[in-house]
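Think of the structure tokens as a kind of shorthand, similar to the way a musician reads notation: each symbol stands for something richer, in this case the local conformation of the backbone. In the example below we present two proteins back to back. Begin with the first one, reading the sequence and then the tokens, and try to describe in your own words what changes along the chain.
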Amino acid sequence: MHLIVYTTKYRTGGDKFPRIAATRAKELEADGKEVLCKAIESKKDLKAIFHSIRQEGKTIESFHFIGHSGMYGPMYGTMEFPEQFSPYEWKQLEIPFEENAEAYFLCCRSARWFANFFANTFNVTTYGYHWYTTFSSSPKHFKTDKGGDSPLYAIGCVGKKSHGYLGSIKKYLGAEAEELKQFAPGDNTDTSYDKVAELYDAVFQDIKVREDEWAWLDQHIPHNPEQTIIDIGCGNGALLKELSARMKKGIGLDRSASILKQAEKMNQDNPHIEFKQITSPILPLEDASVDIAISMLSFRYLDWDPLMNELKRVLKPGGKFLVVDMVAVPAKLKHYPSLLTSKFKHYKHRKKYPDYYTALQKLVKHPDWQTMLKYNPIRAEHEMLWYLESRFEGRKVEKINIGYHSSVLAFDTGDFHKINALELSYP
């Protein structure tokens, strides 16, 4: 059978997706096989469809997702409470694919990282778009929607978001549709920090070199020598070393075995700090054993919903989670005064920390670092902002550093146990 799923509520354009799905269904019905076309508004909806197909003993020849997506794949729910399967959650799903099945993700930027990940996770040839998608009455080039019940397509295309105003002009002059990018199973690229552990360690010998991030954390972490702090995505352990006097116990967690060796070396004089490797969002900690959890420049890589469930388990009543991370977002005109201030601070920063910038250049130019970034893309600002603020009602994300194409966000959950978990669909 062919399975088509689409969203209607998440973000704008939801009224267009049923028409795109209907157009796709008519094309697939031509081969005489069953076509199932369903609206899905949550992760639970999609899991239920896969379960029903398995129960009926059927298999999927082609899977088609039509809707919005972020850098880590399809989005569900609404802007007020967005949902997204994490990599870990995808790997737990049982999708009844036929042999030689195919998957199509007709959504923004699905070829940047997700399509390749999906191909290798489910052993199916997968297709996606590199650029943002748009609605078009032609599948070959951009053509304004005719409305009504006329055929409608989601095509990848140059536009304002990807190419600025010039891209927008090209689009409305009838730009050609982007050819779907194809990914076959078999790419087992190492996406961890293992190969760049020593280079990374050389950059962050002193975590305070990240002045804006450190200043924010310094304000939000109490000076309490009796507390337990965990650092999720701890890297070389530089942050825990700096916080060593503020804790009775510190635990650094990371996926990379090589970088944890650097962390242990850096903290060899801090017996109250230990490090553990994790390969899933399961935290190797006892219930209600942690006062503060931190994720500094690592939240983008983590499995958000599963992690939130685990943090709710391990944090003590009143415990909190601190997030500091970089996101992709172009600076707006209103941000230019702050941007100019940040650029001036950056110039002074380069003069103040020459060794840091020398080591940083060696790291970012290394081919293994470039590969790691390719398979661990930076999140868009709205993905992180909507997610965090929807889970912790009344708490606001702060923007602590602004660049031309990226910014640094910071978020303090306050009492973590006030998390709005009513709609969490994992596990």
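Once you have a description of the first chain, move to the second and do the same.
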Amino acid sequence: MTRKTKAEAEATREQLLDAAEEAFLENGVAGTSLEAIARRASLTRGAVYWHFRDKADLFEAMVRRVRPPLSELVEHLRTEHQGEPLSVVRNLCEYGLRRLADDPRHRRVSTILLHCCEHVGNADNAVTRQDKAAQEFIELMEQQFARAAEQGRLHPALTPQTAARALHAYMAGLFSQYLRDPAQFDLTGDAEPLVSAFFEGISR
């Protein structure tokens, strides 16, 4: 009986998180109330408070179910030290784009973070983490591009720092534009040529 109760509680929690994803995506974080999330989940507001302290707590739990694109790439880059540096970075960027296209939950939460996440108390922690991940991404990219420069593989007109910031801007732009309208291009099929277009311009 205890196991069943725990399983039911976990199922209810997941039901609320799924409803929150849909509501935040449709109405934005600021425009979504806990009552609206409860209604969408066909549950009571009391059920929401049984599992979450407030909207901020629910929002944090929703984000923790996935790894936002830049955060995930940062995590991989911390451990990727083998191989030709430009190839390492290029492969990771292609992976990041395909993951965004192929994983619906990853895509929904990323859309909320980038386009539906107003700077309000409920979302500020997540936004701050995104900003931190972006800075760490740039720093790790700079290290990889410095290795490429030492090997004579980086275009001589670029410094590692400039190349890193350019790549961040390019990837962030692709993420943002795709999430605004996923139908505008096939990110799964186009990941390789999109990334190749950037790296052909910075390598030698």
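Compare your description with these statements about the second chain. The chain is about 75% helix and 0% strand.
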